[in-house]
Amino acid sequence: LRYFTAGETHGKCLTVIIEGMPSGVEISLDEINEQLAKRQQGYGRGGRMKIEKDTAEILSGVRGGVTLGSPIAIKIENRDWANWESIMGTETANNEKSVECPRPGHADLTGGMKYNHRDLRNVLERASARETAARVAVGALVRQVLKPFGIEFLSHVKRIGEVEDTADFTAADFFEKVKNSPVGFGDENAAQKAMEYIDKIKASGESVGGIVETIVKGVPAGLGSYVHYDRKLDANLAFGVMSVQAIKGVEIGMGFGVSEIPGSKVHDEIEYSDDFHRLTNNAGGIEGGMSNGEPIIVKAAMKPIPTLYNPLRTVNIDDKSEHKATVERSDVCAVPACSVVVEAVIAFEIAKAFLDKFSGDCMADVKAYYDVYMNRIKNF
Ligand code: EPS
């Protein structure tokens, strides 16, 4: 399973091609569009989200709502293109919105040096997190392979700047509350504080990051492998999550916490009743690079978006004079959106590991392999 994305933030559209989906997967376009809409929401987003209404158009690889086994192409239009056509046209383009003052923290400067772009717009157009809309579409598509096997994905925001949501995600109504929270929190009081904090940050011309957490339930033991580095599930999850714009840290299970306490408090004791399971889940569902049957828990830290309305110091790349960084319309806080994106890239890595393990050209074969394997390990 693999995919490619293409598209500039103010270009005509985002395009993605997904290859390696088995045939016979029932596809709901509504489920893809639901995730795209979710990515657009959240307290602290900027003006662009008022322009866009992200919807996926499936161009190939699906017939009558069922995958054919051939590559699947998806298009997401940029409504803002109407305002940028003369600047971003592929045939003719003017320099009206050229960028010479790179934003600290963005790809602008190094990207310009590397690709020899004197107009740094050529860098930011592709480095922008707009590209994550395409990846959300991929995640929403491939998780439809996993759905019949009872694998589900849940995400929430754990922190926005100095405000932490300490509520327990195992509480019965936690994710119902998350769904209705403008900041993706499970605790309403903490959510209120987070929104006030975002208002304060916005008023001071700042931006803010946070921590998001994804929980994957129903993953069978044995995805990934201990035998080779590039087959380790945790390594591939970390790769996928780190590849999301603005992510600076990834933790699995207890994460960095494992460095602070003794082994007996870290490792999850094993019990047998009907099947093997762990008494705790500090490992976050992964041991030896393999899923162990417990929920997979991944946390990611997002840095504040580099575009500041009260910009930082930088240098004009043409005359080398001291300047304030370019102010490009942006979001004050995109952490709730980031939780949707992180969930999507995790869905892709889990689907990839699942189809590596239960490889088949059609869903009937995938299901047959799955059943044989599950039966065997049940009697282990
Ligand atoms: C984004 C669209 C972009 C940015 C944001 C993500 O739209 P525009 O640049 O037109 O405002 O809001 O991109 C960034 C945060 C960034 O640093 O580039 C989106 O669709 O998510």
Mean pLDDT across all amino acids: 97
* Mass-distribution shape: globular
- Please state how the strands of the largest beta sheet are arranged side by side: 8-7-9-15-10
Order of helices and strands: EEHHEEEEHHHHEEHHEHEHEEEEEEEHH
Strand content: 15-25%
Tally of DSSP β-strands: 17
Describe the biggest sheet? 5 strands, antiparallel
Low-confidence stretches: none
CATH architecture name: 4-Layer Sandwich
Helix content: 25-40%
Bound ligands, named by name, code or SMILES? ligand EPS
Annotated CATH topology: Chorismate synthase, AroC fold
Q: How many distinct domains?
A: 1
Give a structural overview.
The chain has 380 residues and is α+β, with helices and mostly antiparallel strands. It has a single domain, classed as Chorismate synthase, AroC fold. It has twelve helices and 17 strands. The strands form six sheets. The protein has a five-stranded antiparallel sheet with strand order 8-7-9-15-10. Strand 16 and strand 17 form a beta hairpin. The radius of gyration is 22 Å and the shape is globular. The chain starts with a strand and ends with a helix. The model has no long low-confidence stretch (mean pLDDT 97). It binds ligand EPS. Ligand EPS binds next to helix 6.
